[in-house]
Amino acid sequence: MTMPRDPLHLEGQVVAEKYRIEQAVGEGGFAIVYRAIHTIWNKPVAIKFFHGLAASRLDQRELFMQAFVQEGALLTELSSQTASIVQARDIGTYISPQGHWVPFMVLEWLDGLSLDDVLLREREAGAPPWTVAEMMGVLTPVANALEIAHMRGIAHRDIKPANLFVVGAEPRSGRATIKVLDFGVAKMMADNTQLQAALAKTGASVKSFSPAYGAPEQFSRTYGATGPWTDVFALALVALEMLRGAPILEGDDLVQLAMASSDVKRRPTPRTLGIPVSDAIDQVFAKALAVQPTERYARAGEFLDALVAVTRGPSAYASPDDLSLRATVASVPTPVPIAPPPHVSTGSGAVLVSQTPGPVAASAPAAKSRLGLVLGAGAVIVGAGALAAFFTFGQKSARSAPSAASSQASAPVVPAPPPEPVCPPNTAKIPAGQFFMGSDRKDAQANEKPSHNVKLGAFCMDLYEVTAKDYKACSDVGKCRRASAEVDWPDITRADKKLYASLCTIADPAKGDHPINCIGWEMAATYCKAQDKRLPTEAEWEYMARGPDGRMYPWGDEEPTAGHLNACGAECVAWGKSHGVTLDPLYRADDGYATTAPVGKFPAGNSRFGPFDVVGNVWEWTADWYGEYKPDDADNPTGPTSGEKKVIRGGAFNGSFASWLIPSFRYAQDPKAQSYGIGFRCAKAL
């Protein structure tokens, strides 16, 4: 195999006093990647040198470095919030002997094979298309990884098989780790007009997407802006390519691909491609591949939820006959393990290298002999193994399939057990379990005591606090009372009414994605009922927030910071000062939001089960009347049968006390109170 040239003449040198460059392993028009050894840790890393910027002027370099620092900071922040995103190791600059200024990023080194190479070699070997179960086993972690970015408003914009990396097992097994490549600097620079102008002066350019997986808005902005919905389009194309066994958009040039992407008369759904699926699954793809971005799923998580809902069993296929045929075709022996191809594949800001022949499912020592690396600034890691059983359909082996005559005499087929209940979209499944509810800490409030063991059945909990936009949608169709733009609670003063009414999110169209507030308990309960849900019980809320291990806060035992939640920081104190209110900070840092924040902005504070903003932002109504604990009420407790006040949990954006954030903390509130600091989320029993 011929390795890429070494235009920077770095092989054998030590960069930044700790990275010993071994060899160039991939090159694109904008960057070149080297394999290096971290001399202190003695571990391999990938270093991506952006040599396309080597000709930049002195006055441009600061702008470029600011962009690199911002991107590195973002990736570090994301990786600190979830183990599913790989942190960028380092950034720096290299000055060549010729005086060329070249910024670089240090990234994780990966052993594996791109999905693009997997699909190519399978086609060459005559392997059958993937089943729905096999496809979901690979793309479910991809969608979950994208959702992490989408919740921050970050879009990848170049999802394709070449940017999906398979590590650790045979791809169809459901046990491989899937990593999304290229969330990196190249894409960030392509989206920044100021940087693009500077790049033009250097003669460099950045390719922002791959036309074969492009959404209509990437070909023409007349369809609107790109965003997370753009990734949904591309992810659907990748899924269909796996199910079909061939690429989806067909065309010899950019114009033909653009026409294929935006042709409203022929959408590339499974059925139009000859893949026998149910109406429900075909409709999911039709929505994911809608020409107009506003008609698509807004995020990868929504697309995934819809797919999960319609692919939980054999009904994913059009009929029992189709299922039998599909199972037989899928069981034809596939020529695996597949040796990585001896070539280099270069994508938009990403280079994947496979060199030494060997099976994808090789043992760990063997896998180390292969080369593969992440060249985007952030690779997303999600293990697919846990989802194998979740999406597996029964299949017969073609080699042992009985003849038609023997089939007629065989015993009747035992019907499959009914599928497990599925949680609605944008909810987290909280498994059945038990925990010690309440607290025995010395500094705990009296109403948190005594701690007592509680058992709960499985239930679903909203991932996000109900937003002003969602609540308005309910009231607009008459299912919910119209939210008030006024605050009200017992003994409220006229001054407080005037001051705090401005914080009611329903009154500000710009706060549609902020939690709804200024509504009482009954209005919250009515909304949940309209969604075929209900308010969570105190026990469900606390278990969702802390889990069974007794952790101090939803994220663990680490003290709360501005990165964990929206509480009272420097911004909150400043708001209070400007409005004549004295507020004490929980932390000195600025969390970015003086009052409420859009939901999902603080993933570092997620509960172990996934819900966002469990503490901070707004208090949350629960279903229970306030009362003392009854330790003997240990199974699915629902609190007193009546009372004067309802329980709220979780603290709010103006919270100054860490004790409010401890999941066992309880506060009794008048159910008619309409506070700027109280919202809610819904639950559903399974």
Automatic annotation (TrEMBL):
- List where the protein spans the membrane: 371-393
Instruction: Note the InterPro entries from the entry.
Output: CTDL_fold, Kinase-like_dom_sf, Prot_kinase_dom, Protein_kinase_ATP_BS, Ser/Thr_kinase_AS, Sulfatase_Mod_Factor_Kinase, SUMF_dom, SUMF_sf
Q: Name one GO molecular function term.
A: kinase activity
Cite the Protein kinase domain residue spans from the record: 19-308
The record ties this protein, via Pfam families, to:
FGE-sulfatase (PF03781), Pkinase (PF00069)
Q: Does the keyword Hydrolase apply?
A: no
Q: Which residues bind ATP?
A: K48
Keywords, in A-Z order: ATP-binding, Kinase, Membrane, Nucleotide-binding, Transferase, Transmembrane, Transmembrane helix
What CDD domains does the record point to? STKc_PknB_like
Q: What is this protein called?
A: Bifunctional serine/threonine-protein kinase/formylglycine-generating enzyme family protein
Q: What is the species listed in this Swiss-Prot or TrEMBL entry? A: Pendulispora rubella
